[in-house]
Design brief:
Elements lengths: L4 E2 L2 E2 L26 E3 L5 E3 L11 E3 L4 E6 L8 E6 L14 E6 L3 E5 L5 E14 L5 E9 H8 L4 E2 L10 E6 L4 E16 L2 E9 L13 E4 L5 E8 L12 E3 L5 E2 L5 E5 L26
Parallel strand pairs: 6-12
Antiparallel strand pairs: 1-2, 3-4, 5-6, 5-9, 6-7, 7-11, 8-10, 9-10, 10-11, 13-14, 13-16, 14-15, 14-18, 15-20, 16-17, 17-20, 18-19
C-alpha cells in the first residue's frame, strides 16, 4: 500500500497509510480537455460538448492519507455525509486479514478542499461506518454534517460513486487531497488477485504507467474523466520489484501464476459499496447485492 504519512513525513509503514506504496514519481496535473471541433457548414465550426475537467472539489486531506466526500446514487441531501478512504488509512491501524470494522465511534477530522485545492473547512466523523483490508482496501466514515449542510456552508457537492463495474481503457484521474496533486492515466486492466504481504484483494484496478502515485495518495478517489464519478480508491503500488511483499504487491491469476510489475500502481473498485448502503447512508451488509466482507 502507499505508506501512510505522519504529518508531512513518510511513515516507515506501508504506502499511503498502509500497505504497498507506488513508486514516487512526478505527478501529472489534470488540465481541461482540449476542445474537439467539427465542421458544421462551409464557414461554421462548432465545439462538441466535453466533460468537465476533474478538480479537487469534494476531496479531503486526512492526517496521513487522501480521501473524498462521496454519495451513492440514492443518497439524500439530509443524509449524514460519507468520506471514502483506504482501510489501511484508519486511525486504528491496519485491519488484520479477515478483520472487518463496522460502526466504530470516531471523531477523526478531515480538511475539505475546493476546486483549486485550497482547504475551506474541517469536517468531523461520528463513526467508521465500514473498514477492511480483506478482499478490498476501504474505509468509509460517516460525518456529523449532512450533504446539504456541507453544500450550504462551502458550496461543495459530494462525488458520486459509480454503481457499475469500471471498464478497461477508461481515462481516469487520481485526485490526492493530501498532496493536492492529480495523476492522469487509464485503466490498464483488472487483477484477479492482488497480494501484498498478509493481505489479498480481489478484482483490483491496474493503472497504466503514467499514474505514478506516491505515499500519501492512499485513499484518493479514482475519477472517471467522462462522468466525474468515483470508480475506485487508490491504494498501492510495487516500489522495488519484490514479489508479494509489503509495498510490493504481486498479481496472481486464476491459475495461481504470479506476475510482478515494478513501478505499476493499483486501486480498489468502489461500485460494490453501493448495494451495501441503505436509507440514511447506513451500511447494511445483508442488503441484496451486497458482497462486502462481513465481521
Amino acid at each position: 500500500m502507499k505508506k501512510p504519512l505522519v504529518g508531512a513525513l513518510f511513515a516507515v509503514l506501508l504506502l499511503g497509510a498502509g500497505v504497498a506504496p507506488a513508486t514516487a514519481a512526478t505527478a501529472q496535473e489534470t488540465t481541461s480537455p482540449s476542445a474537439v471541433k467539427e465542421k458544421a457548414g462551409p464557414a461554421a465550426v462548432k465545439e462538441k460538448a466535453r466533460p468537465k475537467a476533474v478538480d479537487f472539489a469534494g476531496t479531503v486531506a486526512l492526517s496521513n492519507c487522501s480521501g473524498s466526500v462521496v454519495r451513492t446514487p440514492d443518497s439524500q441531501p439530509d443524509d449524514p455525509a460519507l468520506v471514502l478512504s483506504n482501510g489501511h488509512c484508519m486511525e486504528t491501524g491496519f485491519p488484520g486479514p479477515g478483520e472487518v470494522v463496522v460502526d466504530q465511534p470516531s471523531s477523526r477530522s478531515f480538511t475539505l478542499l475546493n476546486a483549486s485545492g485550497s482547504g475551506v473547512g474541517t469536517l468531523r466523523a461520528s463513526k467508521i461506518s465500514y473498514g477492511t483490508m480483506t478482499d478490498t482496501d476501504i474505509s468509509v466514515y460517516q460525518l456529523t454534517r449532512t450533504y446539504a449542510q456541507i453544500e450550504s456552508t462551502y458550496g461543495i457537492k459530494a462525488l458520486e460513486l459509480n454503481a457499475a463495474h469500471p471498464v478497461e481503457g477508461t481515462a481516469i484521474t487520481v485526485v490526492s487531497g493530501y498532496w493536492k496533486r492529480t495523476y492522469s492515466c487509464n485503466i490498464d486492466g483488472f487483477v484477479y488477485r492482488l497480494k501484498e504481504g498478509a493481505w489479498t484483494w480481489k478484482d483490483s484496478v491496474r493503472y497504466t504507467s503514467a499514474c505514478r502515485t506516491i505515499g500519501g495518495t492512499s485513499g484518493s478517489p479514482v475519477v472517471d474523466n467522462a462522468t466525474g464519478k468515483v470508480v475506485a480508491v487508490n491504494n498501492t503500488g510495487n516500489e522495488n520489484g519484490l514479489e508479494c511483499a509489503d509495498n510490493n504487491p504481486c498479481e496472481v491469476d486464476e491459475n495461481g501464476d504470479v506476475t510482478v510489475r515494478e513501478g505499476i500502481n493499483y486501486a480498489q473498485q468502489t461500485y460494490g459499496l453501493v448495494p451495501c448502503i441503505g436509507a440514511g447512508n447506513e451500511f447494511d451488509l445483508d442488503r441484496p447485492g451486497c458482497e462486502l466482507p462481513k465481521p
